[in-house]
Amino acid sequence: MQITMRPMTAEEAWNFMLSNHSLYHKLLKRYRASYIDFIPQADEFKQMFDKETLNDKDIEHYKNIFVNKVYNVKKLQHLDNIFEDDVKPKFEQAVNQHLVPLLKAWNAIMPKKLEIQCSYGRGSNYWRKSDDVALMLFRMSRYPDDATKFLGIMFHEFVHMLIEKPIIQKYKVPKDLKERIVDLICYECIKRPVQPRYENSFANKYITPEAIKTDLPGAVEKMMADYILLQQKQNSAVRK
Question: What does pTM read for this prediction?
């Protein structure tokens, strides 16, 4: 698999932040997400995300500040050396050792190319452009120079990308269960610490080490059947 990494341009980074403003207010804040995840360390963008809607004047105002006063490509390149010297070789080793043997059991396809882009904030995103090409976006301007954290986040997002289409979308897994499934896989493979807010999860009973290694799709299918049945029973009890 070919892996490349580059910083977003000012225009790309602005458009990504603007798209996350809408997504944050429509969806993400329901899951206790923080808008700090999507912005540079500047008070103007806290003000921007405090506004639920932005008019054209607002957008022009904040874009001008970002493009002309805040954007600094070096902020998005501060982990380049750590990535090349430490993270990338360890990631490739972990993928080959832990994930490649599971592709058949997961009905998953390994991409031939992984493109990594870097923007402002903290956290990460993933997309599957095609069977052959995957994209990750690291919001890394707030991250310290920590190779272990970088590797853990990268592996976590890569697992998300591998199972999104053949498992998560197929069985319509909601966000909280999806995060727990990936956390359990990452802990099983590389002992990455799990996210505490998802620890007490309905998924725990189903996503066992054995299920991960032999039949993750079957475990998720069973989990979602039971989850839907439980929701139906709870809704019926509320109506009564």
Answer: 0.87
